[in-house]
Amino acid sequence: MTAAALFAGIGGLEVGLAKNGIRTISMVEKWEPARAVLAHRFDSSELLSDVSTVKSLPRVDVLTAGFPCTDLSQAGRTQGIHGSASGVVSHVFRLLPEARPTWLVLENVQNMLVLDGGSAMAFLVAELEARGYRWAYRVVDSRSTGVPHRRKRVILVASRTEDPRSVLFADNAMERETASISTAYGFYWTEGFTGLGWATDAVPTLKVGSTVGIPSPPAIWVRDAVRGRQIVTPTIEDAEALQGFRRGWTKAATTGLGREGSRWRLVGNAVTTGVSAWVGSRLVDPGTPDLSSQRLIDTGRWPHAAYGNKGQVWSVPTSGAWPLRRRYKHLVDVIDTSMAPSLSARATAGFVSRTERSTLRFDPDFLVAVKEHEHVMRSSQ
């Protein structure tokens, strides 16, 4: 099987497809740091630039598009599916007729199911059905693939000739129970006033970073670490591993092209390779979908899993965010917390200040550890 990739980023979808023998022959990506990574990692693939200038794509079995989430994400501009960034998804539908893929795979943030009453999903569905496609989507948590990274994304699969339900709804697993007492917890040190992103034995969703290229990785509370080492942050290589890539995957992005912050943006935008590997396995070998709980619904509200055709939508409640349950890598096994950078005194102080003004409830031991960390870091300056 062959594939083409629009908005290819650093190839997260394509890495997973390749693990199932699906070869990507053409990739489209505009941002230079991402193009540097693709040129290095997929040197046998055709690499095209701005999608708006692409006139046609080769005939392929699979067309992928992890289109920009900037206008759809809670952390973004929330301008919607027709915003200046996310609106480029329209080029997917422009290029579909000539590529004529058996399968179309789209990926984006979970927030698009609720933003503006779910207008983004309504737009995608309308465009697909107007071209004779059947479609299905499912929210998938990256932790189900074994990485300690709580990251939920919408995976949408569509086809004119095949049944997308056989790809997305053939697998179901029980969510892994987190231990009541863990050695490590991830949280957003940039928040603390109205939210925290708390994750047990995992990090919350890796973010792109600031618009000026300053990385903002989550922090990790290592409960049993020595003073000064209890609050640390993952390195960019750790972040690559948390997304399922080999460490150093994005190193080519900094070769004369920009600061380290560009690598955080690339990794924060990427698709977890374990998720795409699961999708690829079912594209190659579709299964029998479990539709025992399906029910016809009003499209005014989009559930976590659904499929549709010809204006009708069915929810699939039994298809949760864990389609599989790979062997789990604990956070302290992925990140060497003894070597990870300590959160700075300034960053810790800002976080402490926000927690003191917040109405949120925090683990008392966690607050003690954070305040002690601030004191230790100031003392070492």
From TrEMBL:
Single GO molecular function: DNA (cytosine-5-)-methyltransferase activity
Gene3D superfamilies tied to this protein: Vaccinia Virus protein VP39
Residues of the active site: C69
Transmembrane region(s): none
Keywords, in A-Z order: Methyltransferase, Restriction system, S-adenosyl-L-methionine, Transferase
Superkingdom of origin organism: Bacteria
Record-listed E.C. numbers: 2.1.1.37
Reactions it catalyzes: a 2'-deoxycytidine in DNA + S-adenosyl-L-methionine = a 5-methyl-2'-deoxycytidine in DNA + S-adenosyl-L-homocysteine + H(+)
InterPro entries the UniProt entry points to: C5-MTase (IPR050750), C5_DNA_meth_AS (IPR018117), C5_MeTfrase (IPR001525), SAM-dependent_MTases_sf (IPR029063)
GO biological process terms held by the UniProt record: DNA restriction-modification system; methylation
Protein family: Belongs to the class I-like SAM-binding methyltransferase superfamily. C5-methyltransferase family.
Protein name in the entry: Cytosine-specific methyltransferase
Species, as recorded: Antrihabitans cavernicola
